[in-house]
């Protein structure tokens, strides 16, 4: 149970109820971070617009690279909600969820490509108590993904750092999206 309870549908105003309808239609359930943020409707709307804009703009990196880097941040920071939701997103992209069990050994494990290893290592370098990104690391990422790709990857890793830290601070935990318990979105 989150530290601040979610706003129930019956306690929500008309804008929040409309946003709940949209979220339920899209994800099969209202994501709990969304429902907790509903205590501040203007921030909820701003966050929703931002998430949709980021999703629409993110077309440079391959989905597997982006989603693995984001998943790694969630895993490192221990945000069970983000891990749950991230696994669902990977499933919907048709990605192999079995290999997530080996993400701690990504540097050597054959389930990961060279590009994925670079992105996961970058996520690690951006996610600790202090950022440890090096010039050489960014140069290698730029050679692999181009400048636009590095900006996109950096943005997604930074955004997931924010999401995971907010969710963890508010006590928001997994909701069953990865198993389909909360989510009725069909597998492609």
TrEMBL record:
Annotated protein name in UniProt: Transposase
Family matches, as Pfam families: CMD
PANTHER family in the cross-refs: 4-CARBOXYMUCONOLACTONE DECARBOXYLASE FAMILY PROTEIN (AFU_ORTHOLOGUE AFUA_6G11590) (PTHR34846), CYTOPLASMIC PROTEIN (PTHR34846:SF10)
Molecular-function GO term, any one: peroxiredoxin activity
Domain of life of the organism encoding this protein: Bacteria
Coiled coil: none
Carboxymuconolactone decarboxylase-like domain location: 56-124
């Amino acid at each position: 149970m989150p530290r601040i309870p979610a706003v129930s549908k019956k306690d929500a105003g008309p804008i929040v109820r409309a946003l709940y309808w949209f979220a339920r239609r899209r994800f099969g359930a209202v994501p709990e971070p969304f429902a907790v943020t509903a205590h501040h409707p203007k921030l909820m709307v701003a966050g929703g617009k931002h998430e949709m804009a980021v999703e629409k703009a993110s077309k440079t990196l391959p989905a597997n690279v982006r989603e693995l880097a984001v998943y790694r941040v969630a895993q490192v920071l221990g945000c069970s909600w983000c891990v749950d939701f991230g696994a669902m997103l990977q499933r919907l992209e048709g990605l192999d969820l079995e290999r997530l069990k080996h993400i701690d050994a990504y540097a050597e494990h054959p389930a990961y490509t060279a590009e994925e290893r670079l992105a996961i290592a970058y996520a690690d370098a951006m996610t600790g108590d202090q950022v440890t990104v090096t010039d050489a690391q960014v140069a290698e990422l730029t050679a692999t993904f181009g400048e636009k790709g590095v900006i996109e990857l950096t943005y997604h890793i930074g955004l997931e750092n924010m999401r995971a830290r907010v969710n963890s601070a508010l006590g928001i935990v997994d909701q069953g999206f990865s198993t389909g318990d909360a989510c009725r979105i069909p597998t492609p």
